[in-house]
Amino acid sequence: MAEDRQPRRYPRNLQGVMQLAVDAGSAAEGPAPVEPMSEERKTWLRDALAEVCKGQMDEVEQMKQCLAVLRQEGSSERETEGEDERDEEDEDERESAFEMLSELCENLDNARDFMTLGGLDLCVSQYLCHAQSGLRWRAAQLLASCAQNMPQVQAHLLSMGTLPKLLQLTDSDPNPTVRVKALYAVSCLVREQEAGLQAFLSHDGFSVLMRGIQSDSEKLRTKSAFLLLNLLTSHPEQKDTVVSMGMVEQLVSVLRTPHSPFHEHVLGALCCLVEDCQQGLKDCRNPALGLEELLRQRSRELQGKEESQEELDFCERLKVICFRGQQSDDNGMDR
Q: Residues with Cβ < 8 Å from 256, sequence gap 6 or more?
């Protein structure tokens, strides 16, 4: 039949095959008891399984080939002049290898295989500190792809001391793309990962985020503010630590810079720091900050702008928590 000649529709992962098996079993159900699967169905399912296994083997081979390219780095030092063009070709090959690996490792099975093949160790030991920024940021991006939603990979990277290296890149790398990709990898290691959070705290990660929010890179500011908001929301027990660092004052000073969409996350973080945190509330009420007037002004600017509704909501929430009924609250504390 023409339908049988269509391009293959087989899934490329185990989850898809399992769904095929369920669908095939369901298709065999009739009004009476479940009938045995037909030979045609059995053949179809066997072919699908074989195709998936073949595809997975092919992808493992692709990863091995990419790793072979990346491992040539150590033997590619040039001892003679006139090799600049060849060096550029080598760098292009390694960048392409990283890009393919990042795509492959979005599949959780491939990410696990990549770890088994020693790919994570190679990225951390050789490429996070590489002289070429294009290779540094691609290595960080690959680590993020592997670590996202993969506790086994996260634990391995943390045991290797990867997090402080990523924090250092986020904080001080001269290339803005490296800093952004390194922060992405940090996020994949600390969100919903208790061991990662503890490592983040022990290496003063909140200070790194604060400096990221104050950087001149729009992407880094946005991602730093978003991660700060996420961590404060997920771990309210860290509010006192963050407030003691002078975070409220720093965030308010950021709000005084020319308006930017990332201010939404900054205001969200301030909301977190005043809820169930007396010192955060006290800091926001400090007249020297002028936060009340700043919030009034920002609210006026945002009125009627549908795309800024969430930021406006944060402004209104902060005004209510910090300044509505403040006099009676102060009197109550005096008593």
A: 294
> Within a 13 Å sphere around the CA of 289, how many CA atoms are in the beta-carbon half?
22
DSSP string spanning 65-109? HHHHHHHGGGG----SSS-HHHHHHHHHHHHHHHHHHHHHTTSHH
Q: Is 169 exposed, middle or buried (0-12, 13-18, 19+ CB in 10 A)?
A: buried
For residue 140, what are the contacts with CB-CB under 8 A and spacing of at least 6? 128, 166, 169, 178, 181, 182, 184, 185
Q: At what angle do helices 247-255 and 205-213 cross, to 10 degrees?
A: 20
pLDDT in tens, 65-110: 999 999 986 544 444 444 566 667 888 999 999 999 999 999 999 9
Q: Which of 95, 141, 139 is nearest to 121 (CA)?
A: 139
What are 79-83's contacts with CB under 8 Å, separation 24+?
none
* In contact, 271 and 317? CB cutoff 8 Å: yes
Rounded-to-integer distance, Cα 28 and Cα 33, Å: 10
- Residues of the chain falling short of pLDDT 50: 1-10, 26-33, 54, 75-82, 327-335
**Distance set, CA 116 to CA 60, 100, 134 (Å):** 11, 18, 25
Distance from C-alpha of 210 to C-alpha of 216, rounded to nearest angstrom: 12
The whole-angstrom separation of Cα 194 and Cα 176 is 28
Angle in degrees, 0-180, between the axes of helices 218-234 and 205-213, rounded to the nearest 10: 140
